[in-house]
């Protein structure tokens, strides 16, 4: 019950309330989706780089690539891209890794624009519902020609309900929008910071071995012996 009315009647009597209800459902779905996404794809740059560098130094690039592919998060995806492009020089490798970071940043920011729009739209829709509700209340009073303070107060209270509902949706949505935006920026900056470390690590391995992933040099086969001369000589 809201203002002495069943919940169904409150929404049935206002198109704005129905729109706000739809906004609340969509906003909740986006908040949950982003929560699950960041829970699965968050990473610790320091720990991840330490483990990756240990595997690379001790077991080589083949084992390091297999190890990176086992971890389903953007950090180890960056490591895998670095190994797959290890033949490039440092500048070109940095460009490749920067492109990867940009692609991941787009994934981090997915649906955040819609979440921010819903936060602002819900508040404005609530104000719109209040204005239209007040107009309708005073219009009804002018038509009937009757109504005291009690009638006017009831109409105003019903009109302000849309503002309250809009704020109820907009404030939490705006909070999660800012939180997820900050989370996205932090993850992207962490990936950018580790790019230089990966390049330095691979360049160090190149200097030590002459190649990050040296191929075994095949021993040349001796030339075949000349064919025997089977002609009869007299």
TrEMBL record:
Pfam families attached to this UniProt entry: MotA_ExbB
Keywords, in A-Z order: Cell membrane, Membrane, Protein transport, Transmembrane, Transmembrane helix, Transport
Localization (cell): Cell membrane; Membrane
Residue stretches of biased makeup (Pro residues): 217-228
GO (cellular component) term, any one: plasma membrane
Main location: membrane
Family per similarity comment: Belongs to the exbB/tolQ family.
Record protein name field: MotA/TolQ/ExbB proton channel family protein
Organism of this sequence: candidate division WOR-3 bacterium
């Amino acid at each position: 019950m809201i203002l002495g009315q069943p919940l169904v009647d409150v929404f049935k009597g206002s198109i704005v309330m129905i729109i706000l209800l739809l906004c609340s459902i969509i906003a909740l779905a986006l908040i949950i989706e982003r929560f699950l996404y960041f829970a699965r794809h968050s990473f610790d740059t320091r720990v991840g780089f330490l483990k990756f560098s240990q595997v690379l130094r001790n077991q080589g690039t083949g084992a390091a690539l297999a190890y990176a592919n086992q971890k389903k998060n953007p950090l180890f995806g960056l490591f895998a891209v670095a190994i797959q492009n290890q033949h490039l020089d440092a500048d070109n490798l940095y460009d490749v890794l920067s492109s990867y970071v940009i692609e991941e940043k787009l994934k981090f920011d997915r649906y955040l624009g819609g979440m921010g729009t819903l936060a602002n739209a819900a508040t404005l829709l609530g104000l719109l519902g209040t204005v239209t509700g007040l107009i309708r209340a005073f219009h009804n009073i002018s038509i009937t020609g009757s109504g005291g303070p009690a009638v006017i107060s009831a109409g105003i209270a019903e009109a302000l309900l849309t503002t309250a509902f809009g704020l109820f949706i907009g404030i939490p949505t705006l909070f999660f929008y800012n939180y997820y935006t900050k989370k996205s920026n932090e993850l992207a900056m962490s990936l950018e910071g580790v790019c230089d470390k990966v390049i330095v690590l691979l360049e160090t391995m190149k200097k030590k071995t002459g190649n990050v992933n040296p191929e075994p040099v095949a021993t040349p086969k001796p030339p075949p012996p000349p064919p025997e001369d089977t002609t009869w000589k007299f």
